[in-house]
Amino acid sequence: MADQNYFEDVAVGQKLPPLTIAPDKQQLVKFAAGSGDFNPLHFDENFPMLKPMGLSENIVHGRFKYAQVGRAVFAFAGYKGRVQRFGVSYRGMDPLNKEITVNGVVTAKRQEGGEHIVELDVWTENADGQKTTPGTAVVVLPSRE
Amino acid sequence: MPDTETKFEITDEMRAQYGVDSAPWTYEVTTTSVRMYARGIGSDDPIHYDVEFAKAQGFRSIVAPLGYIGTPVYLPGKNDPTFGFPRREGGPRLNIPFRGLLDGGTETEYFDYICAGDVLAETSHLADLKYRETGRPMLFVTNESVYTNVATGKVVVKQRLTSIHM
Q1: pTM
Q2: Less CB within 10 Å around the terminal CB: N or C of chain A?
């Protein structure tokens, strides 16, 4: 866990530290076990539904990418912060063993109802720079006051 | 080949199911399940593994990674064998003809962190249907779920999931 972020120290336009992963089949099998999503689309190269869905290889779970975005958002909030909301759309497929990078940027900050709220744009992007999982998050940060 | 021959129509009968809550289902959050999910996403944050460490940070136990809202109690014949989600009474019956399934989007609103030891009651309802016939036919199904901590009676999470059937 990185150092705790405080509301006063965060600026609009500030980028989150990038988180880069390249999930292999073993990682996705672990995710299947942890999440309960055993769709063979993600680990069986002979799964008969691959071709009818226009796929030539296994793809990373959308929820796996959501969880990676969640890791970045949780790290930004820190143990003293709180994640209010985060959501993504699954716009592009990511194959196994290819780099996926989670990025984020602070888009707004405000005080509301006594809470110190920070809004983020967050996304995963592939090695070509395409945003495959764009989304937003709202985080409550602690204040130094 | 893509399943372009299959036709589908959103009927008034389907729309009538919007907002109709399913029967509740129990989701369990255990130390083992939190650790397994954390391993599944490749996290090495001790807040998801070490109970004493988590308590020292002010949490009641290890914290579920974002994206994990417990594991639905699995009863053979009553849960989907591939995805594990409950096939319970009261949920919408859409008779979807497409065999392919992808995630379309996930949005989660948290009112509290979820920690090991929590037992949650989840209800869900159909929130939206969209059907696109241009190109490959796709049906977008959006469900909303509400998770209530059984011990406190408080809503801890609301989640909106969109699945794409094709």
Answers
A1: 0.92
A2: C
Residue A115 confidence (pLDDT) above 60:
yes
Give the gap in angstroms from C-alpha B160 to the nearest C-alpha of chain A: 9
- Whether the per-residue pLDDT at B137 is higher than 90: the answer is no
- Please give the class, per CATH, of domain A7-140: alpha beta
| Cβ <8 Å between A34 and B107 | no
Query: Å from A139 to nearest chain B CA?
Result: 10
- Please indicate if any CB of chain A lies within 8 Å of the CB of B84: yes
Choose the closest CB to A87 out of B42, B101, B108.
B108
- ipTM, two decimals, is 0.95
With beta carbons less than 8 A apart as the criterion, state whether B18 and B46 touch.
no
Q: What is the pLDDT of residue A121?
A: 98
Ranges of each domain in chain A = 7-140
pLDDT exceeds 70 at position B40: yes
Chain A residues within an 8 Å CB radius of B65: 67, 70-71, 74
Domain boundaries, chain B: 1-29+70-166, 30-68
Q: CA of A92: how far to CAs of A84, A108, B63, B68, B134, in Å?
A: 26, 26, 30, 22, 18
- Distance in angstroms (rounded) separating the CA atoms of residues B162 and B143: 6
Query: What pLDDT was estimated at residue B2?
Result: 45
- The pLDDT value given to residue B13: 84
